[in-house]
Amino acid sequence: MKSLLSSINQYSNWIIVVVLIGVCLLYVTPSNKRHIEPSTDATFQAAVAQETRPVLVKFGATWCPPCVATDKALAEYESSGSADVKVVILDVDTNHALAGHYGVSSIPHSFLFLNGKVIDDRVGGMDVDGIRAWVKSNERQWKN
């Protein structure tokens, strides 16, 4: 017990630094962020189905590390100015009806919509290059 207390005392400054970094990350991470629209069951119709341009919808959760990483990539994609699509993020924990309607059983699960209809979907996390490539592979459907 005595050696445990001495170890804690020896590393107490590091423990404090790690805790402070964690608290800072809560306020600096993209959850306070961006132009990406969070959506709900109630606003989905206006945010997606009535949109005239393509819409990328990502279903995920705040507790899901691949979802959070994909959110960061989506924020980078959207802020790069090269995004031809509107980006919307839906939390499956608060949007059960929509997640069920689109058959979301694994997250993150992303969909591309055009004129309110699903034109493609992808399960799993994506980095910004993966997002760009996926969107580009579907461009022919709206560039005609």
Using only C-alpha atoms, the radius of gyration works out to 19 Å
Q: What's the helix-strand series?
A: HEHEHEHEEH
Bin the strand percentage: 15-25%
What would you call the structural class?
alpha/beta
What's this model, at a glance?
It is built from five helices and five strands. With 144 residues, the protein is of the alpha/beta class. Strand 4 (109-114) and strand 5 (117-123) form a beta hairpin.
What does this structure look like?
This protein is of the alpha/beta class. The chain folds into 2 domains: 29 residues; 109 residues, Glutaredoxin (3-Layer(aba) Sandwich), CATH 3.40.30.10. Helix content is 45%, strand content 19%. The chain contains 5 helices and 5 strands, in the order αβαβαβαββα. It has a 5-stranded mixed β-sheet. Helix 3 crosses helix 5. The chain starts with a helix and ends in a 6-residue tail after the last helix.
Summary keywords:
144 residues; alpha/beta; Glutaredoxin; 5 helices; 45% helix
List the helices and strands and how they pair.
Layout (H helix, E strand, L loop, with lengths): L1 H27 L8 E2 L5 H6 L5 E6 L4 H15 L6 E6 L4 H6 L7 E6 L2 E7 L4 H11 L6
Parallel strand pairs: 1-3, 2-3
Antiparallel strand pairs: 2-4, 4-5
Helix pairs in contact: 3-5
